[in-house]
UniProtKB/TrEMBL annotation, chain A:
This is ABC transporter permease. Residues 95-304 form the ABC transmembrane type-1 domain. Keywords: Cell membrane, Membrane, Transmembrane, Transmembrane helix, Transport. It comes from Neoroseomonas oryzicola. The keyword ATP-binding does not apply. It is found in: Cell membrane. Its main location: membrane. Signal peptide: none annotated.
TrEMBL record, chain B:
Pfam families: SBP_bac_5. This is ABC transporter substrate-binding protein. PANTHER family: D,D-DIPEPTIDE-BINDING PERIPLASMIC PROTEIN DDPA-RELATED (PTHR30290:SF38), PERIPLASMIC BINDING COMPONENT OF ABC TRANSPORTER (PTHR30290). Keywords: Signal. It comes from the Bacteria. Belongs to the bacterial solute-binding protein 5 family. It is found in: Periplasm. GO terms for molecular function: peptide transmembrane transporter activity. GO terms for biological process: peptide transport. GO terms for cellular component: ATP-binding cassette (ABC) transporter complex; outer membrane-bounded periplasmic space.
Length: 313, 528
């Protein structure tokens, strides 16, 4: 197992290298010029060129790529073209809100969606099943921003229970922290809940047909232990896989959610950087996201062994 | 349902239906929470021309002189200036007691260094600078311009709002004008709190306790810049509906640029004031690429202009309320001394049918028209889509490209034919201030390759512009030249003026002392 973990961690290096090459090349060929953004409307082409030179954007592709990779190997993600702040500092400023949003969404989604899926499979064909599936369809169909605006309208503006926007750091207290995250987490989690609930239901339906479930029932095991101990454990591998895949969904959804609720997270940092062509920031954030995604996949693979002892690495 | 419609509706219901919250107390009452028009990404007002950076700079830095409500340049940091009888020597004297935020006194050498850095980037001053023989420090409080010839416009350049001359300490102002300064030390009414700056989320300024404001009442950007707040906090909220909700709930106090779609709803909220604070409207323009077919033919450009009705454009941007916009069928800012419509007949035609006939007569032969619309700039996008509709209705061969602003500003630099990545039509907007005089009117320039994108080459326009710089001090001469310029520009029609719209601001009713100005500034504002 240990050897497997080491192998997998080492395997992230070529993956990250490919991501780095891909991101850098994509930005190199993509249209847009930060020097033109900085120079403004009144600048002459000479002004733009001078800014481009001062930013080192006039250097050849290989020189720029080599210098960027060399900096990364030394742990330096570079400096933002616009703010003059180190990219690592900017990421540090933004990582807590995004991480908080992801964790709360993940906890909320799993704690709601798994029981929903289990109950729907147990009560298959009944109104409960239909309600759960109806909710799942709704969750998939309604865009995150619509859910966000509706939640903000009802719970922030009408009922005045929660703030409309913003983020409070965890260090300033749990209550203000969670108050700011409930609505965004529910909005972001709606698709995620729908996805997990559907997969849980489908997998549970299959497991509940198995002989060992029939045997458990024949032995007189109660319904809760059949569902949650016998069936759910055996249905866990596909569910955990979907939860892992869904993290990519969360990263994408966080961009919209952070905008709707004015949360200063990595999603907004990425969009702002793309719109301004702040290359060092885009490269740094995309590398980080790729690393997180590789890591999540590793964790999911390791979790398989917990749920299914037959799996060995 | 479109996102914009949905957000408009939801924020509208919210803004209309929510009662005003209790007034803030204590520290909150001395902090103004602002939603700025854009994210503050860079802090150097010389390095970038971003309006949001300029607004930040007005908080932090001071100016030698500033423009009052009537457009006249008045002393600000300067106690005054003496002009020699021949007009060739200008001596500025600084007020007593001026100090930078780091405690150092403001000296004449700081002003000289700041002017020297700023003039390298300001297009207006670049026109005038050949007239300057020397700029030198005389003593701690005095510095002097020596001129080759009389240059009355120099004062206007120093006091302008479009690209203001902010004073920094000499050690900072010595930074290359094309490099960003690394410190933010000014002598203005507020200090920038760099430790609390989180680009994309928040920027904070604290009152400069040592600031010595002028004794005169505030008047435009001139007069006493009195800091009445302990803190000014900008929170970047990119979503207009969320901004509207935050204003309705009292989570924010001031919204610089509310989306026009949301204005009626904000106005219905008794806790929110919506008023036109900025003194200048925002002007839209449609720019042709004069190097490539079909718009290398002035007759085709004029034909398109004949189909334009500015009111359609302005409704698309700013809504149906005529109080929110104005028709301006000339190249100079309306209601300013040079505004005129001499020769603007094509623009007053407003007829698709006549435009079609003119297009045919001009020899349009089905050449492709590439129009780039920036999807991430709602106002400019709306202008672009209006022109696209006109081009289609004229039966021209249109390719409409939707891009983001970053892509557009790169592609507009291409002089290539449309088949090789070039373009035919772009749009942009500009503050009325920058279109009031020929000397800094960017879109009017027609000096070929050195002109703004589209690169029109009309020597007569350039000759008239130079003549205005020479004789612009004489009102009658200035007016005559301005009329000739309008006539020439309309004849060549290298860009179509699309009128102007007002951009109101919104603030909570407990915000006091808000005054009209050509820029969003926060001195003299308090909270009750």
């Amino acid at each position: 197992m240990f050897a497997y973990v080491v192998r997998r961690v080492l395997a992230t290096i070529p993956v990250m290298a490919i991501v780095a090459l891909f991101v850098f090349s994509l930005l190199y060929i993509a249209p847009g010029d930060p020097a033109a953004v900085i120079a403004g409307d009144q600048a002459t082409p000479d002004d733009v060129e001078r800014i481009r030179q001062s930013l080192g954007l006039d250097r050849p592709y290989l020189v720029r790529f080599g210098s960027w990779v060399w900096d990364i190997l030394r742990g330096d993600l570079g400096v933002s073209i616009f703010t003059n702040l180190p990219v690592a500092t900017m990421i540090k400023q933004r990582i807590e809100p995004t991480l908080s949003l992801m964790i709360v969404t993940l906890c909320l989604a799993v704690s709601i969606a798994v029981p929903m899926g289990v109950v729907a499979a147990w009560k298959v064909g009944t109104w409960i099943d239909r309600m759960v599936m109806g909710f799942a369809v709704l969750g998939f169909s309604v865009p995150v921003f619509v859910v966000g605006y509706l939640l903000a309208y009802v719970f922030a503006l009408e009922l005045d229970w929660l703030p409309v926007q913003g983020y409070t750091a965890f260090s300033q207290g749990f209550v203000p922290w969670i108050e700011n995250l409930i609505l965004p987490a529910v909005a972001l989690g709606s698709v995620y809940i729908a996805l997990i609930a559907r997969i849980t239901r489908a997998t549970m339906l299959e497991v509940l047909q198995q002989d060992y479930i029939r045997t458990a029932r024949a032995k007189g095991a109660n319904q809760v232990s059949i569902l949650f101990l016998h069936a759910l454990k055996n249905a866990a591998v596909p569910i955990v896989t979907v939860i892992g895949i869904g993290i990519a969904l969360l990263i994408g959804g966080a961009v919209v959610t952070e905008s709707v609720f004015a949360i200063p997270g990595l999603g907004r940092l990425t969009v702002d950087a793309i719109l301004r062509r702040d290359y060092p920031v885009i490269q740094g954030v995309v590398l980080l996201f790729s690393f997180v995604y590789v890591l999540v996949n590793l964790v999911i693979d390791l979790l398989y062994t917990l749920f299914d002892p037959r799996i060995r690495y | 349902m479109e996102r914009r419609t949905f957000l408009g509706a939801s924020a509208g219901i919210a803004a209309a239906g929510v009662s005003a919250p209790a007034l803030s107390q204590g520290a909150a009452a001395r902090t103004l929470r602002v939603i700025p028009q854009a994210n503050l990404t860079s802090l150097d007002p010389v390095w970038t021309t971003a309006v949001v950076t300029r607004n930040h700079a007005f908080l932090v830095y001071d100016q030698l002189c500033a423009t009052d409500g009537k457009g006249e340049v008045k002393p600000q940091m300067a106690e005054g200036w003496d002009i020699s009888q021949d007009g060739l020597t200008w001596t500025f004297t600084l007020r007593e007691g001026l100090a930078f935020h780091d405690g150092e006194k403001v000296l004449a050498k700081d002003c000289v260094a700041s002017i020297d850095r700023w003039r390298r980037r300001d297009p207006f001053t670049q026109v005038l600078w050949p007239n300057v023989a020397e700029l030198a420090t005389l003593d701690d409080r005095r510095f002097r311009f020596r001129l080759h010839k009389r240059t009355p416009l120099l004062l206007m350049a120093l006091g302008q709002t479009q690209f203001p001359c902010f004073i920094m300490p000499e050690r900072i102002a010595r930074t290359d004008a094309f490099q960003q300064v690394r410190e933010t030390v000014g002598s203005g009414p507020f200090r920038f709190l760099r430790d609390e700056w989180n680009p994309g989320q928040r920027a904070v300024w604290a009152k400069n306790e040592r600031y010595v404001p002028r004794q005169e009442a505030v008047d435009g950007l001139a007069g006493g810049r009195v800091p009445r707040l302990d803190r000014v906090e900008w929170t970047i909220i990119t979503d207009p509906a969320t901004s509207g909700s935050a204003m309705a709930q009292g989570e924010q106090d001031y919204w610089e640029y509310p989306l026009h779609d949301l204005l009626p709803m904000l106005r219905r909220n008794r806790g929110v004031v919506v008023e036109q604070r900025l003194t200048d409207g925002t002007y839209g323009i449609c720019r042709f690429n004069t190097l490539q077919p079909p718009f290398n033919n002035p007759a085709i450009r004029r034909a398109v202009a004949m189909a334009v009705d500015q009111r359609d454009y302005l409704r698309a941007v700013a809504g149906d309320d005529p109080a929110g916009w104005g028709v301006c069928e000339g190249v100079f800012t309306c209601d300013t001394p040079l505004a005129n419509e001499a020769g603007s007949d094509a623009l007053k035609t407003h007829s698709i049918e006549r435009a079609k006939a003119a297009l045919q007569a001009a020899g349009y032969n089905g050449e492709k028209v590439v129009l780039i619309a920036p999807g991430d700039y709602p106002q400019i996008n709306a202008l672009s889509l209006m022109t696209a509709d006109i081009i289609r209705r004229l039966g021209m061969n249109l390719e409409l490209i939707s891009a983001d602003w970053g892509t557009l500003i790169q592609r507009r630099a291409s002089k290539e034919p449309v088949e090789r990545g070039g373009w035919s039509i772009i749009h942009t907007t500009s503050s009325g201030q920058s279109l009031a005089l020929p000397v800094f009117h960017l879109f009017l320039r027609a000096n070929g390759n050195d002109a703004w994108f589209g690169w029109p080459d009309v020597p007569e326009v350039e000759r008239l512009r130079a003549e205005w710089v020479e004789k612009g001090g004489d009102p009658a001469e200035g007016r005559r030249i301005a009329e000739a310029l309008n006539r020439e520009a309309m004849q060549s029609m290298y860009y179509i003026p699309l009128g102007y719209y007002w951009q109101p601001s919104a603030w909570r009713r407990n915000v006091t002392g808000v005054f009209r100005a050509p820029a969003t500034v926060f001195w003299n504002i308090g909270k009750s």
